[in-house]
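Q&A log
Question type: sequence-to-structure
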Amino acid sequence: MIENFTLQELSSEIIVCSRCPRLVAWREEVARLRKRKYRDEEYWGKPVPGFGDPHARVMVVGLAPGAHGANRTGRVFTGDGSGSFLFRALYQAGFASRPEAHRREDGLELTDLYIGAVCRCAPPGNKPTAEEIAQCLPFLTQEIDLLEQVQVLVALGKIAFDGILRVYRQAGYSLPRLEFSHNRVYRLGENLPWLVDSYHPSQQNTQTGRLTEAMFAGVWEKVRELLR
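Response status: OK
Response body:
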């Protein structure tokens, strides 16, 4: 169990986590070797905490930091193609102050929205193991607890979707069997947030047309409707 931190204290705890040896080794190796495109940059190379409005009514949950995205920049969904797709949509929906996210100090602010993840370290091949997910999930649990005004949870991808359901089931809530798809809305229970699912904005999905900008915009339109 994680102690009852504030969001800022929880972020500090996340950054120093070393529970998963495979992920520690991988994230640090990536930070040491670097991608040629970013060879002159200093990589973050540590677990990545959540980011956003502490009074948010919407929480977005992703999979894990990208090896040369958040693992480089130190901020979720910042510095790679997935983040570019996400923040452009959030800007158009009125949740982000800028349509792009390149580095932690770029002035981007989120309004009424907070972004977290199931795993906080970049995993090899973007595939954390079941044990690594279990080790990291308490951080997501604590974020959800601390974001007391959240009304809508948005799961980006099936691992995020399953992770959110696991958080509530471990907390003792009896949830029905729910199937992941795209832009479907679920009510988790009385006095619990809505859950909206979406295909992950990875380039594997966006460059193949599985997730288009129009499809993604539809997710945020639905989120706005739920808030109203």
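Response note: Residues 130-146 form the longest helix (17 residues).
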